[in-house]
Design a protein that fits this description.
This protein is of the alpha/beta class. The protein is built from 13 helices and 14 strands. The chain has a 6-stranded parallel beta sheet, sandwiched between helices. A 6-stranded mixed beta sheet has the order 9-8-10-11-12-14, with helices on both faces. The radius of gyration is 26 Å and the shape is elongated.
Amino acid sequence: MDKSVGIAKREEITGKLTIKDVAESLGVSESTVSRAISGKGRIGEATRKKVFDYIEKHNYMPGINSNGLISGRTHNIAWVMPGDCDTVEIPFFQHCMLGLLEVVETFSYHLIVTVSGWSDISHLEHLVNNRKVDGVVLARTNVDDLAIKFLKEKGIPFLTIGSYDDNEVIQIDHDHRSACEELTSMLLLKGYQRVGLIGGSRKLIVNLNRYQGYADALTKVGKVPNSSLIYMDVENYVAAEIAVEELLRKEVECILCMDDAICLYVLNKLHKEMIEVPRHMKVSSFYNSNLLESHIPAVSSIEFDARELGRNAGKILIDYMEGKAVETKNLLGYEIGLKESTKSN
């Protein structure tokens, strides 16, 4: 009798496929199958592929418990942090992760934390290729995102925190464009005519959305965005200082900062130059955090709830993994706080 036929019959009865079953069917040792699944120990790629092809054919995913192979899931979800984030960005991702963890644990999943860079997604590839996770949450979206392309090719359930121009990608984000348009419009209504903008990397989609909100506000009042008052790809204190110096020479009335880190650079530079806020210059930020909370005067800014973003991301991904219908594009709200840093004289 063909061993594979016997195994198939036994699988119908027990509903489980064991390491021994796979080994008998393929004519290899149980230790070979175990090494192929765990990714540990030496084993040829041809043998590893043969094991996984057999498992996939029988609709099982690799995972190991006391009974052998587990049907279906590892109950692990990957949280993929941007490997290039700096120290001032970490609190946002921490709050997001804590919100995600609340939901993941509630549904009896485990969270695996890893990193992914602009051009190096090897850690993510290892997790997915070795069947270590059931789903993935990407903490940030980039233009021409390699991680997104890889995950789509693999067909693994995933969600992005951050928008992406692809209707097939499940994504959740705060409504940055509307928020930045609203804050910019409020400042224009105060009568400020020359409003400069200092922004971060254009590789990050969140920065492109924030810029678009700024441009939308100008367009609505019949103004064309003045490229000479816009400084993008400012990613360190030196670049921010140069941008501030040039905006001062161009006699802007207000400096809009695309995030909290840039805003702190701007405020420090203005203080160094003995330029008082708001008496001599108005300053506002498109993102508030604890970096700005203790600043005097208080800074006008946009509040986004990172922890709630993480909670919603976890719920949507788990619903999707369990076969429930979910919205592809999900936008959360925001709060705008006009404070002393933009008060009229």
